[in-house]
Amino acid sequence: MNIDVYKLIIENSPVSILVTDVSGRIEYVNPKFCRLTGYRAEEVLGRNPRILKSGQSSEEDYRQLWQVISGGDEWHGEFVNRKKNGELYYESAIITPVMNEVGKITHYLGIKEDITGRILAQRAVMEHSNRLAALLEVGQAFGSTIKMDPLLQIVLEHSTRMMVMERGSIYFIYGNQVKVQLAKPAPLDEEKRLLKTYDLSHFPCMESCIDTQEVVILSKLDREHLTPAERALVKLKGLQAVVFIPLVLDGKTLGVLALGSSRSPSSFAKNDLEVCQVLATQASLAIKNAWLYQEADKYASDLENYNHELARLNADLKVQKAKAEESDRLKTAFLQNMSHEIRTPMNGIMGFVELLRMPSLKEEKRGLFIEHIAKSSNQLLIIVDDILELSRLDAGDVLLKEEQVNPASVVKGVYEKFLSLVRPELTLSYHSPPQRLSHTLIGDAFRLQQVLEKLVDNALKFTPNGKVSFGYQNMGQGKLRFFVEDSGIGIEASKLTAVFQPFYQVDLSEEREYGGNGLGLTIASRIVEQMGSVLLVESKPGLGSLFYFELALQTSAEASSATADLAVQEGAAYRILVAEDDEVNFMLLQDALMHRVEGYKFDVLQARNGLEAVEKVKESADLSLVLMDIKMPLMDGIEASRRIRELRPDLPIVAQSAYALTTERDAALEAGCDRYLFKPLDLTELLRVVRELLRLPVR
Amino acid sequence: MVNTEEYVLLVDDSQTNNVLLEAVLAEVGYETATAMSASEAWSLIHKRRPRLILLDLLMPKISGFQLLERLKEKPLFAQIPVIVVSALSDADTAMRLKEMGADDFFSKPLNLQALLKRVEELYQSESSL
């Protein structure tokens, strides 16, 4: 072949050909080289091939290359070079030294093939398989839990890692508002505040992601197009770009996965966004599962709570039923006994009256008959009085006086009353030690005497012979003990508590041994109870019984201040706030407070919801008590009680609610309510509680 | 063998009631004896078998129910008519007494005319035995 043919071959070669001298200066490049690099031949002739260096091939490679070719050997390798326009390209090169006939290197010949397409394709395949592997791993990770919080943690973790993003947040959409659910690094208060301040319309990028359900990139570079809220978000995160990935559930966007990067937005390839989309789909599914699990879990625990509550209510109901039955039984027994006790003397009265009417009546019998009529009438009167007394005590209608009592004269009064009635086989005595002047007994002398009379009467009845002594003794520590002791028949231990039940004696009455109507001890014990004490009994069958109770003494100073307080409180006005949204209930409570507490005036204010109640407490410093309904509009009673407790720690609060749930009662008491009453309200109980909380003395 | 004697036994812990019935029965010509307790009545019955017993229920120690039961258990006394006189007035008591073999039951306050009529009937029936 002639030289022209060679030239033609080289000029048309599909590979780049480059020739340098021994110092590396370019002497020849073929047209392919020029087409590939963008350099014209005259631009490169005389220059070193390093003008093509991209900096991405290592210096070590170049050193090795020179070592090989200057040693006369051929070098094979790959370069990453840069075109004139800055674009990178890959080439596979063979560089070989050209020697003259004496074996001296005169030139170097480079033959290079452009392999950019192949490299990129390989790389794409690799990346694709990497992504597939990563997605698989993500899928497995997402499936590893169905609990919401750990799941969100995993989603964020894997998304940021996979997308090589520095920051990530998961937002959930609530109406027109977006809330940050989780953020990595940890939730930023500013981010929360930012999302709270601006609604969704201030984040058009996010909004568009939610609406179109497609990945949207918010770039710092589009600065002039960003809203202030978006600018603030980008600035807050210190990022170049935020990628919003929609979390779509059943066709509805439920939230957004936001990934932030300091990479320039232009570096997000189409592939990246596709991966994002796949990621989001998987995340959404996992979130849906977690959501369902959360709901199911909640239902299950709700159900369990309800079951517990139901079981408790059932148990309560059983107790209530047993109580009701017992109370019914007692009521029937009480009526039967009462009937018996009334019929007995009635029989005497009516029978003798009929006898008196007989024309054949002998005159000397008349006096005896009238005597029996009188005795029976008296007995009848006592039973009627006792029954009335007991029912008044039960209804709380017996109000005790608060006056200075001289116990010695009370005891003496009792002694004088019974002295003439004592049978000759019995001795009756009383004890009244001299009292220290510094202490005073405050109470109701009449009722105290009544209690002692009932006890002495009882002792005399159950002591066939022997002695009955009674009186009081100073127990120290400001206590006075009143007692009635007998050497009578005594009471079996098993019956000691029952003796205070009404008609106890008659209740077991087939074997009834002693007279009396069986109400004396009941009345005595109820009165002592009302005096704030307890009537106790100790007894040994055959040896006798001891009944006693203790009353607290007050020092003279206390006593006078107690009476002074009384004088102030007598007729004093109390201001009560009734928080109640139901008008009928309010009127009922108002009426009860204003008209059913004797001797005290109540000024009743109304609040129709919890907020109003709190306001009223703020306004009226003179409030004495709050009645708080729990279920009210705007703010419920529990929250209102909590706030009132902060304003006025001293103010008594009585909660009342139709919910017979202990959980609610506990919540009310925890919020600071002093008492909790169930609706429908027992007004007597309510007034008792009000009296107690206001410390109103019983009159 | 105890012979039946011509008298009505009144058993009641209430003296008033005993005096009343004693007077009422004396008025129409009956002999009576009174016992203030079941045990007193029990020993009296053994000494002198009455033609009729008027029995109170609620009494000390031994009740009228128990006395009635013992009477009905003893063939010797089972035939003595018993009228129960009590301040108990409920139907349960009436039923129970009937089952126990009481001849009649009068509630206090007593309808004396009705009681006398019944006393007469039962006193006669006993004498005819």
Based on the model shown, name its key terms.
heterodimer, A: alpha+beta, Beta-Lactamase, Heat Shock Protein 90, rod-shaped, B: alpha/beta, Rossmann fold, 5-stranded parallel sheet, 5 strands, 49% helix, 16% strand
Task: Describe the overall structure.
Chain A has 699 residues and is α+β, with helices and mostly antiparallel strands. Chain A has four domains: 3-114, PAS domain (Beta-Lactamase), CATH 3.30.450; 123-297, Beta-Lactamase, CATH 3.30.450; 403-558, Heat Shock Protein 90 (2-Layer Sandwich), CATH 3.30.565.10; 570-694, Rossmann fold (3-Layer(aba) Sandwich). The longest helix of chain A has 88 residues, at 270-357. Chain B is α/β, with parallel strands linked by helices and 129 residues long. Chain B contains six helices and five strands, in the order βαβαβααβαβα. Chain B has helices at 15-27, 38-47, 64-73, 75-78, 91-100, 112-127, and strands at 8-11, 32-35, 52-55, 82-86, 104-107. The relative contact order of chain B is 0.17. The A-B interface holds A 336, 339-341, 343-352, 354-355, 358, 360, 365, 368-369, 372, 375-376, 506, 509-514 and B 14, 16-17, 19-21, 23-24, 27, 57-63, 65-66, 87-90, 107-110, 112.
Radius of gyration based on Cα positions of chain B:
13 Å
**Low-pLDDT segments of chain A:** 506-513, 559-570
Uncertain runs of chain B with pLDDT below 50, 5 residues or more?
none
* Biggest sheet details of chain B: 5 strands, parallel
- Euclidean distance between termini CA atoms of chain A: 141 Å
- The CATH homology group name of the largest domain in chain A: GAF domain
Name of the CATH class of chain B = Alpha Beta
Total beta-strand segments of chain A:
23
Query: What spatial form of chain B do the alpha-carbon principal axes imply?
Result: globular
Number of helices of chain B: 6
- State the fourth-level CATH superfamily of chain B: Response regulator
Q: In DSSP terms, counting alpha (H) and pi (I) runs of 4 or more, how many helices of chain A?
A: 21
| Helical residues, percent of chain A | 40-55%
CATH topology-level name of chain B: Rossmann fold
Briefly note the CATH topology name of the largest domain in chain A: Beta-Lactamase
Mean pLDDT of chain A: 83
